[in-house]
Design a protein that fits this description.
By secondary structure, this protein is an alpha+beta fold. Among the domains are: about 140 residues, no CATH class; about 140 residues, FAD/NAD(P)-binding domain (3-Layer(bba) Sandwich), CATH 3.50.50.60. The strands form six sheets. Strands 11-12-13-10-16 form a five-stranded antiparallel β-sheet, with helices on one face. A three-stranded mixed β-sheet has the order 1-2-3. Strand 4 and strand 5 form a beta hairpin. Bound molecules: flavin-adenine dinucleotide. Flavin-adenine dinucleotide binds next to strand 6, helix 5 and helix 11.
């Protein structure tokens, strides 16, 4: 799909915490200063045309770009956000710009839209900006392989093979190949081409060119459980900065909600139907909170199912495998319940029916919440880390040990930023384009 996930995502513009990027620089790249937050901030700003609620604040220029190709604005329709923010004030939390100096704030949500339309990367960087004549897009082309030649004793990526409308074609690169197939697509293509952990590729492919993706440290993704926008730090946060994100959803309970939620996040509709019954049959107003473990300590794995490029890879996300992730969310859960139940502005009660599967536990006890977190978690689609900086690609985004091949997409993030991932992905793309130009 043109625009990739930005053509289907929830459009939230959230960069993550400054310290997330500083850790890329120090922990993942051995102290390379070009990947710390201060060095990356110009790349966040470059593509941004910021028209959010803080646009008139002179201090916002330090953190926000103006005149970039992608509109970022606080959207008008956020029903219930005023009570959410008033409750935060009652509790002594700070209201502010989560993409600014301090992430640990409550706020309205900024989106990537333009005149009410979704502003995907396809619209922002291609369709609405004059369709650059030196770019050729082959729609419906499915890349199946990257091929290599040995040049001066080192593998060099030389061509890409793709299938399109029943035909197989190979294109040869004159300079280099840029892989941007996303966290699952890029790692899958590398492995299909023989780049990956030798012990795995030995099982599924004819030959392994390079061994890089280390098992146990592959795909990393946030999971979340049902609970404006806020960021918290839990007691198990390491290092010591915000590791939780909270997003309020104000939608009512209505008869089709179980089916709609099933389509959105995959929770079984029959379980939701049992839990909501009978309230969703009476069109009752409700507030939902999404609690996201933004810096999970659990890591998943991704392997090839076979050498057939049409087969999906095997994903083993290992959500909540590290007990600290549950404890972080337990802390967040209790904070949210306290905010909703113990403020005049919200004056709301936790949905009184126990979550199916947790009925035997004392309602609102820590063990009850832990059960809810384990029973009701799902992915929020922020998968990263399959081709991570430091392990698979170097600080130039070049695949280690191979010439002529870079990866530029969410897969290179070595750890999740505490936030949604499109802003950081586009920042990486802006940085990547400068790295390419510098090598020309
Ligand atoms: C439902 C959903 C909601 C989300 N909500 C938000 C949000 O509100 N805010 C936010 O910041 N982030 C959100 N995200 C995450 C964010 O959109 C992604 O992290 C980001 O877009 C990743 O960009 P990418 O370029 O790495 O990969 P992708 O966007 O996945 O793009 C990869 C592209 O490569 C193509 N591709 C893959 N394999 C091949 C192949 N073999 N041949 C040819 N093409 C191939 C794919 O079709 C796709 O078009 C959401 C994601 C999803 C799925």
């Amino acid at each position: 799909m043109l625009g990739g996930s930005t053509s289907t995502n929830f459009m939230m513009y959230v960069r993550g915490n400054k310290e997330d990027f500083n850790r890329w620089s120090t922990e993942d790249l051995g102290g390379d200063p070009q990947w710390n937050y201060d060095s990356l901030l110009p790349y966040f700003k470059k593509s941004e045309d910021y028209n959010g609620v803080y646009a008139s604040d002179p201090a916002s220029a330090e953190y926000h770009g103006k005149g970039g190709l992608r509109n970022v604005a606080t959207y008008d329709f956020q029903p219930g956000v005023d009570e959410f923010l008033a409750a935060a004030v009652e509790k002594g939390y700070t209201i502010g710009d989560y993409n600014g100096a301090n992430q640990e704030v409550f706020s309205k949500i900024d989106l990537t839209t333009q005149n009410g339309w979704r502003e995907s990367t396809y619209r922002a960087f291609y369709r609405d900006t004059g369709k650059p004549s030196n770019l050729c897009i082959k729609k419906y082309a499915h890349v199946t392989k990257i091929s290599f030649k040995t040049v001066s004793g080192q593998p060099k990526a030389t061509s890409v093979t793709y299938k399109r409308q029943g035909l197989t074609r190979t294109v040869t690169a004159t300079k280099e190949i840029i892989l941007s197939a996303g966290t699952f697509g890029s790692a899958k293509l590398l492995m299909l081409s023989g780049v990956g952990p030798a012990e795995h590729l030995g099982d599924v492919t004819a030959q392994a060119a390079v061994s890089y993706l280390s098992t146990g440290n592959g795909v990393l993704a946030a999971s979340d459980a049902l609970a404006g926008q806020a960021f918290f730090k839990s007691p198990v946060a390491e290092p010591d900065y915000a590791d939780l994100q909270v997003i309020q959803f104000s939608f009512g309970l209505y008869p089709q909600l179980p089916q709609d939620m099933n389509r959105m996040v995959g929770i079984r509709a029959d379980i939701l139907d049992k839990w909501f019954d009978p309230y969703h049959k009476t069109n009752t107003d409700a507030r939902f909170c999404l609690l996201i473990a933004g810096r999970p300590k659990s890591f998943g794995n991704m392997t090839l199912a076979s050498t057939n490029p049409d087969d999906n890879p095997i994903q083993d996300p290992q959500y909540l495998a590290n007990p600290d992730d549950v404890e972080a969310m337990l802390f967040g859960f209790k904070k949210i319940v306290d905010l909703y139940e113990n403020t005049a502005a919200l004056n709301t009660t936790l949905f009184l029916k126990p979550v199916p599967g947790c009925e035997s536990l004392v309602f609102k006890s820590d063990d009850y919440y832990r059960c809810v977190i384990r029973m009701f978690s799902f992915t929020i689609y922020h998968h990263v880390g399959s081709c991570s900086l430091g392990k698979v690609v170097d600080s130039q985004l070049k695949v280690k040990g191979i010439d002529g091949l870079r990866v530029i997409d969410a897969s290179v993030m070595p750890r999740l930023p505490n936030g949604n991932t499109q802003a950081a992905t586009i920042m990486i793309a802006e940085k990547g384009s400068d790295l390419i130009i510098a090598n020309m």
